[in-house]
Amino acid sequence: MLEAAYNLFVKILSLSAMASVLALLILATRFLFKNRLKPTWTYLLWIPLIVRLAVPWTPESAFSIFNLFPLETESAQTFYIPSAQPDVGPVSGMNIQEVDSTKVAEITGTGTSKQAERPDSMTPVTQGIYDPFETSNTGWTPMHLLVLIWLSGAVVMISLSVREQLRFTARVRREPEIRSADILWLFETCQREMKVRRPVKLVETKQTAVPTLLGVMRPKLLLPTSMLHTLEANELRHIFLHELAHVKRRDISLNLLTGLLLALHWFNPLLWYAVSQMKRDQEVACDALALKHLASGHHKDYARTLLKLLETLTDPIRVAGAAGISSSKKEMKRRITMITRHKKITAQNTVLGLTVIMVLSGCTLTGAKLSSTSAPEKSVVIPSASQTKDSTAIDPKGTLLAEKNGITVTAKPTAEHALLHEVTVDVRGEVNRTFLWNAGEDETRPPSIEEADLNGDGTKEIFIRITTGTGTGLSMSEIHVLQPVTLEELVVEDPVKTLNRRVKSSITHRNNHTYVSAELDGKHLTKVYDYTEGAWGEKIGFGAVVSYELDGDRIVARLAGAASISEFPLEVIVVYGKELTIESVQMYYGSFISPPLSEQDIKSLLEKKLTASGWTFGKKGDQYTINFMDPPNGVGEGLSYKINPLTGTVHDTTSGSPVRSLVNREAIDLWDISNGTEYKKELYKLLQPIFDTEGFEPIDEDWISGFIGDGYLFSNVRQGSRELTIKVDVFTGQWEEIADPYK
Hints:
Helix 11 packs parallel to helix 13 (329-340). The strands form 8 sheets. Strands 18, 19, 20, 30, 31, 32, 33 and 34 form an 8-stranded antiparallel sheet that branches. A 5-stranded antiparallel sheet has the order 25-26-27-28-29, with helices on one face. It is an alpha+beta fold. The longest helix has 32 residues, at 142-173. Strand 32 and strand 33 (722-729) form a beta hairpin. The chain contains 17 helices and 34 strands.
């Protein structure tokens, strides 16, 4: 068994060394031809590397680069021991020389007379052939340990990859398929355009922050829940075209093979780097294939869609059997540049790409010619005529982004920075000023221009909101407040820095669960996830998703709190005062719909859960009401419920007991439970994660001391040495300490 492992290990070392040479050549080629090879051909450069790693045998060739420095090992080897004695027994502590199989005839004297002339000191070992796994009296040899270390590393790498794949697949398996006729029609249209005949399921999920293709035999396209409610049809089309490009190119199969090969070569850092570059080229190649199916006028729209999806990412998806629109922020500029310069592939591009790949394959997918004593001739590829860089004429006045009440906003891209623009604000031709702002030229989301007295000085300031991108489907924007006479920009307190300082939070992992606890001004939110995998932070962070709006003369900001790149357990609404500083903050449960819920939000959600008739909707105080006209069993009055717009919890009008959540789709539904004992049992299940996270212990035998009347219940608990009363929304995990209502 160990001998077989040793032979495999030797071959792996040989292949790894040859693949390292090829990887360096590919990286050098990418650098030399970076402005001349199209993305498709740049990606195809990596195919010879996969072949080199996967195929252990190569034909001999005088053209092979390995004639210069042979790295291959022969499978048939004979080991010799320098000795003056004809009979050799077991050997230890001796200098052992290895002679390849082409020298056997020379040593044994079975070849020509010239071959028979050999040093007398070289005696062939017959009964005493050297075994690299022969143990001495002291135990295992270093070769034993080296092989076992390699084998253990490979097994661990493969096991972790399979475990992660199975866990992710299991979580996704529970997610619902998308049934929207409009989305399905759009996806089928994209399939026909891309000529993808394989069936691909559309699945709505919260397990990933970006659209992700999963699976080889029965692929699924995973779409984040929030994205379905916010992205427009043209943006979904961009996503579909990109993901179908992965299907068409069979990238997932290649990624799985690459992952397996990388597990066998886990000790080689150069190959890890090469594969990471290959996957970046894979994404760019899919962008190029998607752009082939878009009119040139829509290429910038595609780039904006990418920016929206990539701005919040800190790390790509780590599942070998998946492919998504993922990239590091360092790669964003390269991808955007490719998109803006995209042109159709010409015959010249094809010839150049084929030539480069054939030369690389010819000199690296062949082995050294063992009988040859002369070095192979060097082949030099002469580059074609110098490339003329594309240049786009830019209007010196800039592009008009928005206009309202005589105020115009125009923008010109800067040569120094891909995202920053020179933005000029002109007020009715009387005064203008140019700023260096992050401003995308998105016709579908132009800047918003408003005039309002934001600082209470009696003069209406100019309020400009510019959409800069989105993350996980939620619009991100920046605001600028200008003094109307001088256009001086006023300082607005940064909500990101403020919330990162004021929100106290923790993220811990135990028993295969992740526990998130957050507190803001005495209001708490607790959430428990049933998995620990992923790029979790140590605490809640803000800054990935920020949006602004104007409510009368006040600025309102909404910020999502991120626990990981895909989980946003809470949202904070920030209201500004007249000093343009933060006046109030309110923390809410993070959901697919922004809090607090409006009347239209609640009606829409109820219509999806209830029958079309038999109930009425209204409002009483700060709560909304549902009244069922038909009483149960035909006796008495119909049932009546209230909805708390701050939590989205539906509760009984009479008792105040919670029965259903409109915002937490994963919560237990208590709507149809009529048995009091069973109802209390389910409430305990909802309370348990909160108690576990916060270290609460119920003081009384009955955890629930009563219901407050707005969907909250209250409980007397002990936390360490403290005894306190808390009111809790069991569906969203929002809670706070209160005075005992009975005292």
